[in-house]
């Protein structure tokens, strides 16, 4: 270790042997890799400073000698580093440690690969078990569904058997129509009763006479109708959501009072108040409540800002809001038109009756549900009768009367804002004038109808008087034959007719034939006439518009 004598750090570590610990080996090589030498190289000086001619020449020689010494020092350090590198590469202790590290790294890598493989195998095993479990569950579900299907088919088969049994037992009853029972009644029972009920009914009917079996079927039909009526009453009472008062008790307590709905004026004031008193206003909601002035609480106002104000306007009510907000149109009556109308009324002429009748004949037919639809002939008669009483009212031209009739047909009585729309459709007339004109037309129409009825009643009386004077006159007359055709209806027959109308709705095939079969002692024509008379009587009871 001759190179160690020039080392700055002393003592110099030894190389050791094969049994030296790896820590000492690392300490040895670390020392020589960071080796610092104090060795100088004077023999490499090329210039002698003592022979310098001047001070500058001397300094130049010193710089050249320093360069040469630095070059020799670097060559020495390179030589020592090369020596240490060769020793480190060939040191068996270092090589053994590298092999151990390499083996350890390879072992860790293999362990990692093995762990990943085991994890994949475990995941595949879990997936396979899940697949098998699902297959088993699907198999069990398919078996359960198959068993349920078989059970349903069995129940259907038993139900068909019971229905066939009931039809067989009821065949002699329906063929004779005992107690008004027909095949449709039997089919109704077959469709409404379940298997147990059908079996019980058939067991009770077996071994009895035909009349007793008919009574049992009639009782079953009555109970079925009652059950259906109860269900309909329950359905009709549920959607309204209203709580009826029972035994004089109020359904809502004082703390559960229903909130009063917001009027349109209150909503407008709320919007204006929120703009007038923006965020940051002291006691903002109390101030807005006082601004509205309808004793609304702060909670109601806050709730309205989240519900009422966020509601979008209904497009169907756009025309209604337009009618409410629009300004009334100012109409200026023409003096020439007024003078012509007054002259025509004073001369006793009836204006625009024939054109009205001719034009109204081309108007489209309105629906039978509109209670305000007026026939063109009736309107013409009303115009003729009211020509004398309209002298103190605004004159109505033929075009205005046609527009009123058309508007009444277009907007039936259940239309929202009906009279505002009618007045908007009639040029130059207000809502009050349109209502008054309709009242006059209706009164005239009723008076004409009463007159026609009196004339119709007078004709049979005159005919009877003539018949008394001339006994050989033929007895046949249209009115007498009509009265002879109308047979009296008992209360039981009327109830049977009403029940048959409920049982067989409008879409039933051969409805009136079935109704005629259900009503004892009446034909199809008689049932239709009775239904028309009941419908006319019901309409006459409705209050007039």
Structure description:
- 66% of the residues lie in helices and 0% in strands.
- It has helices spanning 22-33, 55-90, 92-176, 183-192, 195-205, 210-237, 264-276, 284-292, 298-306, 318-325, 335-346, 354-360, 376-385, 398-410, 418-425, 431-469, 478-485, 491-503, 511-518, 524-541.
- Helix 4 (183-192) packs across helix 6 (210-237), helix 12 (354-360) runs antiparallel to helix 13 and helix 14 runs antiparallel to helix 15.
Distinctive features:
20 helices; mainly alpha
Approximate shape: elongated
Q: Low-confidence runs (pLDDT<50, min 5 residues)?
A: 239-256, 332-393, 467-485
Major beta sheet summary: none
Distance separating the two termini: 133 Å
Share of helix among residues?
55-70%
How many beta-strand elements?
Answer: 0
Per DSSP, what share of the residues sits in E-state strands of 2 or more residues? under 5%
Provide the structure class: mainly alpha
Backbone CA Rg: 57 Å
The number of helical segments is: 20
Average predicted local confidence, pLDDT = 75
